[in-house]
Amino acid sequence: MSEQRNDTVNRAKPYQLVLFPLNNGATNVYFVLILSYVAQFGSSILKLGMFASIMVTVMRVCDAVTDPVIGAAMDRTSTKIGKFRPFMILGSAVMAVSVVALYILTPMIPESMMWLRYVAFVVIYFVWVIGYTFQTSCTRAGQTVLTNDPNQRPMFTIFNTVGSLLGMGVMQFMIPLIKGMYDVKDEAGAIIVSGYENPTVFRIITPIGIAISVALTILAIIGIAEKDNPKYYGIGGDKQEKVKISEYVEIIRNNKPMQRLMVAGAGCKLALAIATNTTVLLALYGILMGNYNALYLPMMVLGYVCAVPFFLLSMRTSQKLGQRASLIRYVSVALVCYVGVLALLLFSDHGTPSLMLSFPFQGGGAINLYTILFIVFFGVGYGAYYATADMPIPMVADCSDYETYRSGKYIPGIMGTLFSLVDKLVSSLAQTLVAFIFLICAGLSDLPTDSTPYSGGIKVAVIVMFCVIPMLAWAATLLAMKGYSLTGEKMKTIQAVNAARKEAVADGMTLEQAMREISDDTVKTA
């Protein structure tokens, strides 16, 4: 796996493959810290009610205007430290400052100045979103220079998961523990005031999250430093022609694989965002099953453990058959398994211990048949879909290479920000859907906590969000991938053609000549 360059392949060194994907782990810290908790924070701490959930969507939709601008700026950027590293550094700094302002400073605004809380929430959140775009777009775009080896690109998903466990996983594990320290309970041990209603919880988790994210960002910068170099920028290298902003619409319209990948990416992201939403899990484990503290962490650990073999399987499938085949196979597994999860939730009964989840610790009961069946269906299903949730990320690099093959344009920035846009829109849509579904199904104007009493409406809301919406999202993913043309064999041809054209341009041929004279047939017969 040492770096070698021949006519076709740009390979990464082992440490580069391991470190650069940590950039996604760095931003996934904020996926948990902000996107999973900001609506709960706005509702419970700032007393903004449903406004917080609505603004998460509205502000991210408004940010659609900035995404293409940032992508275009990245494509046109060339500094002494490269194209991608400046955006990683700036994005990390902006997010750190804005999350401190949001979680630590805004609660200091007195309730007598509620208008200022509304304004501060909107402005600070919007600034955070800009920083999030800066850094997340580099994860997608930077893969184009890291490696184009079909055997290495699928490994990005593995190391991306390691980064997510160091970032997202640590935060998901730690925050409920800290929250539990600030729960207010009655004499029987029932929660009467959730820790998420205490500003101290957010003052504690904020610096921890920032420290983890900054550390992962530094490692990611080290990972891409050598490859963030003009000689790896498309066919033209350091002679790369600048793409006019007016050309982007035509490029996107003609890049059919990217269009389909955006649908698949949106489906995978929506499934993950809603099924792992903090409020949904609070309602499932705390309200429906009656013991959030005893169930949340064991089920989270179960999901991660079950995901490990699927990551290995998906990597091998991607290397042998291409990333499209791997995505289709394991999304299908998740879809089938969640039919079982759906059935179990439909038959669950809040008043019957044998029809609820139960573990023999932290006040739980003995493991029952219902729990065993849930572990099987949920474990396999979660493992499969968690392994595919970020699989579209390395496929963005394939679409970017396809665009270079199709038009000669090297525009990883706009490709990355298209996915950043999808990520943000879907994530924000998820939070708004959560709020509205609880309102429609359970009549709750504020988001529920684990101290909210059980009702049939809450059960319906949880089933819709934990099972039905993810299943529909996976179905959309499978439909989109049916016509996705970048198979494993096609990508090998694309890389060979791009390499031949790049060599020809380096030898003095114009890009236009290389595009005309070097094709699939000429490379195959050469």
Explain what the structure shows.
The protein is mainly alpha-helical and 526 residues long. The protein contains 21 helices and two strands. It has a two-stranded antiparallel ribbon with strand order 1-2. Helix 6 runs antiparallel to helix 7 (114-146). Residues 1-7 have low confidence and may be disordered.
Helix content: over 70%
Low-confidence stretches: 1-7
User: Using DSSP, what is the number of strands?
Assistant: 2
Structural classification: mainly alpha
Strand order of the largest sheet: 1-2
Beta percentage is under 5%
Order of helices and strands: HHHHHHHHEEHHHHHHHHHHHHH
C-alpha-based Rg, rounded: 24 Å
Figure out the total of helices.
21
Shape: globular
Measure the end-to-end span.
27 Å
Q: pLDDT average, as an integer?
A: 84
What oligomeric state is this? single chain
Largest sheet: 2 strands, antiparallel
Topology readout:
Blueprint: H1 14-19, H2 22-35, H3 38-44, H4 51-62, H5 66-75, H6 85-105, H7 114-146, H8 155-181, E1 184-185, E2 191-193, H9 199-224, H10 248-254, H11 256-275, H12 278-288, H13 292-321, H14 323-347, H15 369-389, H16 392-407, H17 412-442, H18 456-482, H19 488-506, H20 511-517, H21 520-525
Antiparallel strand pairs: 1-2
Helix pairs in contact: 2-6, 2-7, 2-8, 2-9, 3-4, 4-7, 4-17, 5-7, 5-17, 6-7, 6-9, 7-16, 7-17, 8-9, 8-13, 11-15, 11-16, 11-17, 11-18, 12-13, 12-18, 13-14, 13-15, 14-15, 14-18, 16-17, 16-19, 17-18
